[in-house]
Automatic annotation (TrEMBL), chains A, B:
CDD domains with a match to the protein in the record: SPR-like_SDR_c
Name of this chain's protein: Sepiapterin reductase
Gene3D superfamilies in UniProt: NAD(P)-binding Rossmann-like Domain
Domain of life: Eukaryota
EC number: 1.1.1.153
One Pfam family hit: adh_short
Length: 267, 267
């Protein structure tokens, strides 16, 4: 631990979307270990079963036994009611003695990576992708910031789980690249507008998740598909844990430039 | 004219969105002067009156008298039927002796620049913005590429009218920055995927248009509003004509890297 690093994330309210699987699930577990007693996790996902199982696991953990409150919100963020139900649940569990609000915008979908840009003639498909991956993330973030306004003694941190795809075009990944570029710019604007806020665009790297399985089996571009496949067979995918530990270190050090894109491989 | 520059844009089918006003209107006029006889312009906008007036002006021009065909498509690109009606109209006027398809994705809206990101809690508002500014542009481009596939002797060029806002965050411009970043990435992916295609992300600079009037009067961030105001009073806005001439030069030279962001001030 560096001398400037804080020891914990405070008495925090952590809202994590896409918390039932992959990187979101690992983030929930890692955060539960770094928050002070009296903290609350609000876990959001579409799958009730997966959320309950994570909730049960957390209840058995040291943090759970020490009284960590875990609230599950089964919601579809592509629907108008999604962000609203997350905010309602967060307000319910909030208490005035919390000193840190952490929102992790992790939920995302890959889109159909088997097809090339010229095949996307259906507006409803693109609209629906952007609604889930971009609009809901802006509206949830805005709603959380309004629900928990700036006040002395309260730190507010917003994390966007981004990707190299926000910066670099990848063949047959038009929806994913477009959505990630949009989202990252959105959070860069937010960082400019709200100097009291800490905004982090964290790119977790190629993770050994279900999404990567789809990437290496379904990617339309043969060369990119082979790259993903080679990363898998060559053992070059990161575990969610390894990447998440680096994210936690960033949060504890708290020295990143607000709004910056920070890649796991830069750390 | 440099020695490598072509003298004209060929016998072209030019599809221009947002053609009734501002940069789109100027692009229609400039292109009409640079295409060969027998070419066709398909002009798309929501306002029938403004389109008819441009059509009348073009009919009186030298190009019009020489037989340039101008087809108006009154369409709302935010609606599913918008891109479809543009493609139908383009197919109607296409003839086999055309040797260049040029699609100018110019239509865009500013979004509400009087408010900051944290105020965007309404998903329908954000969805609608992204549908018009991002989805429609992808779906129209995809549909045009499918309608006019690659064949020997046919050049295909897709232009995206982009902005500095695609690269740099501006306070109180969250929708515009997000939409432009999304769109630019989309066209970068397209350029990677379709090596036969010429894709240009052209940033026309701060133009003396109705959009700039809104920018300097409505921008929520006082410092940015002053910047726009100072650019206007200091005479530092570009005319659409001056910027469009540079775009035409890029197209005639045809040496830009496909997918690249080219700013008017780089030229």
């Amino acid at each position: 631990m560096s001398s400037s690093e804080r020891a914990d994330l405070g008495r925090a309210l952590c809202v994590i979307t896409g918390a039932s699987r992959g990187f979101g699930r690992t983030t929930a577990i890692e955060m539960s270990r770094l928050v002070k007693p009296g903290s609350v996790l609000v876990l959001v996902a579409r799958s009730a079963d997966d959320l309950r199982s994570l909730q049960a696991e957390l209840a058995e953990s040291d943090a759970g036994k020490a009284g960590l409150l875990v609230k599950c919100v089964v919601a579809d963020l592509a629907q108008m009611e999604g962000p609203e139900s997350v905010v309602s649940a967060s307000k319910e569990v909030f208490s005035e003695d919390l000193d840190h609000i952490i929102l992790v915008n992790n939920a995302a979908s890959l889109g159909d990576v088997s097809r090339f840009a010229k095949s996307f003639t259906n507006m409803a498909e693109v609209d629906s992708y952007l609604s889930f991956n971009v609009s809901s993330s802006l509206c949830l973030t805005a709603s959380i910031l309004q629900a928990f306004p700036q006040r002395p003694g309260l730190q507010r941190t917003v994390i966007n789980v981004t990707s190299l795809c926000a910066l670099k075009p990848f063949c047959s990944w038009v929806l994913y690249c477009t959505g990630k570029a949009a989202r990252e710019m959105m959070f860069r604007v937010l960082a400019e507008e709200e100097p009291d806020l800490r905004v982090l665009n964290y790119s977790p790297g190629p993770l050994d998740t279900d999404m990567q399985l789809v990437a290496r089996s379904r990617t339309g571009d043969p060369s990119l598909r082979k790259t993903f496949s080679d990363m898998f067979t060559g053992g070059r995918l990161l575990t969610c844990e390894a990447s998440c530990v680096k994210l936690m270190k960033l949060l504890l050090e708290d020295t990143y430039t607000s709004g910056a894109h920070v890649d796991v491989f830069d750390l």
